[in-house]
Each structure stands twice: as C-alpha cells, then as structure tokens.
Give the backbone structure.
Amino acid sequence: MRAGLLKEIINIKRPTITKNEYGEDTEVYQTIGRYRARIVHNGGSRNRENDEIVFPYQKIFVVRIYCDVTENDIILHRGKEYRVLSIDKSSELQNITIQTNLMEK
C-alpha cells in the first residue's frame, strides 16, 4: 500500500444501542475512528424504483489493514454517508477494500 495514495479523510460510524427517555432501545451512530483513505468512484446511474427516480452512487474506499470496520458501519465522507456493502482484507497488500453505496436521506 502506497501511503501517498491515501489523500482523503473518512470517519467511520458504528451503531450502538442506547435507551431513550422512555426506556426504549434506540440505535445511535457514534464515530469510532478517523482514517486516511483512497477513494475510487465505482459508478452511478439513474434507476426507477417504486415510481421514483433514484441515483445510486457507488464508491470504493481503500484503507490500511488496521482500520476497524464492519458491515454494519457507515462511512462519512465530505458530508455524505455511505453504507458498507462488502469488505475485502488483503494481507499481501496490507489494505482493506470497502465497497459502498450512497445512503438516501
């Protein structure tokens, strides 16, 4: 892994279960880490789902192998949130390749 390619900063948010004022379990996302990453735009398109037009954008984030990321996490980059689709760890290259898509608000 060439360190010069890690030009962008990402934050990883992980869901935690907390109790609200009514005693209900609620899912809250907390930032667990800030990492440097290489970002590759993997594609975008325009689809029609349920009579609505949506724009699914996919990005690939490449981080160092020590990055703590799971499939339940959300990646925050430049004010946008990305859902983790798959994680591929490479011991030979000492990196983790994370495939994501943009979350709709």
Observations:
- The chain has a mean pLDDT of 88.
